């Protein structure tokens, strides 16, 4: 049995807020804690309705079940970046092994959410319709890889126009939480 899910600004805003809360749920960033050189990093190029680059720290970990929501695995890229962030979630809560993962809206696929702008003043929210997440190395303390995403969403100044397109490519080295 399949289930059709429609994403619009009334559903995307709560999803974006939950994603942003998840990005900060595991404590302050290494930079905010006073560490000069965090080991983790990510960089991304965004092309389409927004043309920009983004970089920042990268972390991963399991998010425990809450209420009726199951456990998920999250890979958080740029949670504290002033340019934007990318959040990947996987359904079962397990750390992925090396390999290439399909990103889409399908229930069992990897999901990706892109938030442009600073955490305190996002300029847009986009969800990946298709793409890949490639994990080249995966240990309990570190995950390395790259991604290519085709996304649609809206800009903060025109939330009713949800069909804005953007391509995002990037790479990362993430620390476990």
CA-CA gap between termini: 35 Å
Low-confidence stretches: 1-37
> What Rg is obtained from the alpha carbons, in whole angstroms?
15 Å
Can you count the beta strands? 10
Rounded average pLDDT: 83
Helix vs. strand class: mainly beta
Tell the overall outline: globular
Q: What does the model show?
A:
31% of the residues are buried. It is globular, with a radius of gyration of 15 Å. It is built from 1 helix and 10 strands, in the order H-E-E-E-E-E-E-E-E-E-E. The protein has 177 residues and is mainly β. A hairpin with an 8-residue loop joins strand 9 and strand 10.
List the helices and strands and how they pair.
Elements: H1 9-24, E1 41-48, E2 52-56, E3 58-63, E4 72-77, E5 84-90, E6 99-104, E7 111-118, E8 121-138, E9 142-155, E10 164-176
Parallel strand pairs: 3-10
Antiparallel strand pairs: 1-2, 1-10, 3-4, 4-5, 5-7, 6-8, 7-8, 8-9, 9-10
Summarize the structure.
This protein is mostly beta strands.
What attributes does this structure have?
177 residues; mainly beta; single chain; disordered N terminus; seven-stranded mixed β-barrel
């Amino acid at each position: 049995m399949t289930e059709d899910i429609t994403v619009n600004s009334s559903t995307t805003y709560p999803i974006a807020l939950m994603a942003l809360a998840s990005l900060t749920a595991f404590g302050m960033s290494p930079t905010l804690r006073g560490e000069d050189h965090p080991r983790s990093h990510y960089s991304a190029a965004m092309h389409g309705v927004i043309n920009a680059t983004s970089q920042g720290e990268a972390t991963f970990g399991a998010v425990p079940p809450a209420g009726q929501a199951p456990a998920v695995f999250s890979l958080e890229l740029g949670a504290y970046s002033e340019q934007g962030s990318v959040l990947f979630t996987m359904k079962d809560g397990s750390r992925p092994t090396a390999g290439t993962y399909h990103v889409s809206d399908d229930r069992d696929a990897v999901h990706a959410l892109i938030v442009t702008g600073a955490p305190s003043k996002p300029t847009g929210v986009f969800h990946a319709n298709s793409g890949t997440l490639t994990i080249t190395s995966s240990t309990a303390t570190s995950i390395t890889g790259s991604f290519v995403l085709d996304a649609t969403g809206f800009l903060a100044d025109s939330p009713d126009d949800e069909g804005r397109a953007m391509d995002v490519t990037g790479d990362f080295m993430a620390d476990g939480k």
